[in-house]
Amino acid sequence: MTEQQKNFIETVGKLARSCRYADKILPSVTIAQAILESGWGNSSLTVKANALFGIKAGKNWKGKVYSCKTQECYDGVNFTTETACFRAYASWAESIADHGAFLCRYTRYRHVLGQRDYRLACAALKSAGYATDPAYDAKLITLIENYDLTRFDSFSGNAAAPAKAYTIRRGDTLTKIAAAHSTTVAAIVENNRTRYPSMTRDYIQAGWTIRV
User: How far apart, in whole angstroms, are the C-alpha atoms of residue 186 and residue 171?
Assistant: First the structure.
């Protein structure tokens, strides 16, 4: 991780946690979306319009607008480049606040709101059509796990926090990993079955980033 990436995560993470919608939308998901949509804050849309999430400016948007090129995938395979108008903001804080308001405004995002499992929240965003990229949810989940973004999430009551990410090292065994993270081998295998279908109680690979 570069210093710029670290600073980006910390800045967006702090703003996401202090946002009025933090209790409805996991900050880890907000940060991952900001990373993906803004290219770590380096996209022209972010640099020139403080827009972190690539929300298009529809007819009901009354704020500032910035026009730029974007890539869309409408058939699930091929990406095309087109020009679109996006919502523009005075600051990153304003962008994050509007992102929360946007998700809360439309019923199609109802399965994102209040979700405490970042994997399900990411899947819900994709299913609701937030982006046309067919791998959108997988990309968000990878960012959350690779950069341990769940550390920005907080939970009240008895809600269980999502699993943490762990990168397997040479010589590791699931038994050792499970003991170190107060979980079970069976739970680790089940949590990672989709991402690593070849994983078994006795087979793992160094370099895999797993949920524990």
Answer: 19
- CB neighbours of residue 102 within 10 Å: 16
Q: Which of 3, 10, 23, 72 is catalytic?
A: 72
Indicate if 72 belongs to the active site: yes
| Selection from 109, 162, 119 nearest residue 142 by Cα | 119
Q: Which helix (H) or strand (E) holds 14?
A: helix 3-18
- The CA-based angle 82-87-93, given to 5 degrees, is 135
For the cut 90, the answer to whether the pLDDT of residue 102 exceeds it is: yes
Average the pLDDT over 152-169 and give the result.
66
Q: Tell me how many degrees the CA angle 132-107-128 measures, rounded to the nearest 5.
A: 20
Q: Give residue 74's pLDDT.
A: 58
> pLDDT for 107-136, tens place per residue?
999 999 998 899 999 999 999 999 888 899
- Identify the sign of the CA torsion 13, 17, 20, 26: positive
DSSP state of 100: H
Among 94, 98, 145, 153, the one annotated catalytic: 98
Nearest Cα neighbor of 50 from 61, 31, 64 is 64
Q: CB–CB of 64/88 below 8 Å?
A: yes
Known catalytic residue at 3? no
Q: What is the pLDDT of residue 75?
A: 54
162 band by pLDDT with thresholds 50, 70 and 90: low
